[in-house]
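Tokens as discussed.
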């Protein structure tokens, strides 16, 4: 009975943390439009609200025992979309070179290809590597610091060099984690699958 209840909880959609995640996703196009329009103070405000809601939904998910499969997908998706929106918006303004956008987006395309390869061999996604979490955090922190320098020019002398240093380091770690995922994918697909029973369709099983 406990297992059945846990499964029902995992599959729920309309929980408070999930609604907060959906609202955070809905703010992504607003964030992008504000950057492209040069409204950096407002864009930074939206990002602060999104970041606070991210912390809140994680806390509520644990506090209310409302951790769901959808929530596990929405949170990283929202983080990546804010990173992409910041990159594209700043690149469109000529404030960030497009090669940074290509480097970061191509890494996620690379991981998508790895996911397809794993699925073709009967595996689910690889567990998130700590290095990948650090890289995402670096990007999610570095780009807003650059934005801070644009929103408040008096901080730009310190904010922009710091933001750029963190962002470039984050992009390097992003690809380093991608290479680790590729090595792990190659290792996993070589493992003989003797009994692919119904409970063994993911790597963790």
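Sequence:
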């Amino acid at each position: 009975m406990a297992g059945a209840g846990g499964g029902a909880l995992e599959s729920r959609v309309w929980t408070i943390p999930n609604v907060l995640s959906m609202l955070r996703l809905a703010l992504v196009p607003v964030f992008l439009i504000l950057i492209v329009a040069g409204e950096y103070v407002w864009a930074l405000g939206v990002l602060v609200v999104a970041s606070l809601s991210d912390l809140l939904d994680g806390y509520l998910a644990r506090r209310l025992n409302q951790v769901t499969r959808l929530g596990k997908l929405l949170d990283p998706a929202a983080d990546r979309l804010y990173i992409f929106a910041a990159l594209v918006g700043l690149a469109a303004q000529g404030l960030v070179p497009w090669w940074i956008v290509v480097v970061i987006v191509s890494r996620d395309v690379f991981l998508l290809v790895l996911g397809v390869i794993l699925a073709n061999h009967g595996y689910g996604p690889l567990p998130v590597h700590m290095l990948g979490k650090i890289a995402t955090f670096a990007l999610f922190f570095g780009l807003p610091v650059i934005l801070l320098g644009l929103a408040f020019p008096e901080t730009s002398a310190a904010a922009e060099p710091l933001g750029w240093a963190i962002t470039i380091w984050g992009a390097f770690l992003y690809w380093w984690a991608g290479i680790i995922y590729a090595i792990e994918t190659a290792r996993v697909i070589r493992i003989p699958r003797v009994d692919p029973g119904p409970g063994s369709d993911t790597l963790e099983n």
